[in-house]
Amino acid sequence: MAKLKLDLHDIFNKGKKIDAELMRVLDEAVEKGIRLIEIIPGKGSGQLKKHVLRFLDQKHIRKMYHRIDKDSKNWGRLFIHLKKQ
């Protein structure tokens, strides 16, 4: 299964850029028909992961996916399962 990957390590302290990159990868996945996105906020203090989860919890974003999996072996990684378009 094809997936897109977004590593947020380089922009961890740029709030608006993080949101823009998250939206970009979601749009790209929908455009290309990809149903799995791997997001790597990293481990750190957990603030970036919380930011990503808050972004994904917005009503208009929540409509795009059906499930978020937190990697049990690496808690600095999330998998977003998009709905079939």
Description:
The protein has about 80 residues and is α+β, with helices and mostly antiparallel strands. The protein has a single domain, classed as 2-Layer Sandwich (Ribosomal Protein S8, Chain: A, domain 1). It contains three helices and four strands. Strands 1-2-4-3 form a four-stranded mixed beta sheet, covered by helices on one side. The model has no long low-confidence stretch (mean pLDDT about 90).
Quick overview of this protein structure:
With 85 residues, the chain is an alpha+beta fold. The mean pLDDT is 89.
Q: How many individual β-strands?
A: 4
Specify Rg, calculated over alpha carbons: 12 Å
Q: For the terminal residues, how far apart are their CA atoms?
A: 16 Å
CATH classification class: Alpha Beta
General shape: globular
Reconstruct the topology from this structure.
Blueprint (H helix, E strand, L loop, with lengths): L3 E4 L7 H18 L3 E5 L6 H10 L2 H4 L2 E6 L7 E5 L3
Defining key terms:
single chain; 85 residues; alpha+beta; Ribosomal Protein S8, Chain: A, domain 1; 4-stranded mixed beta sheet
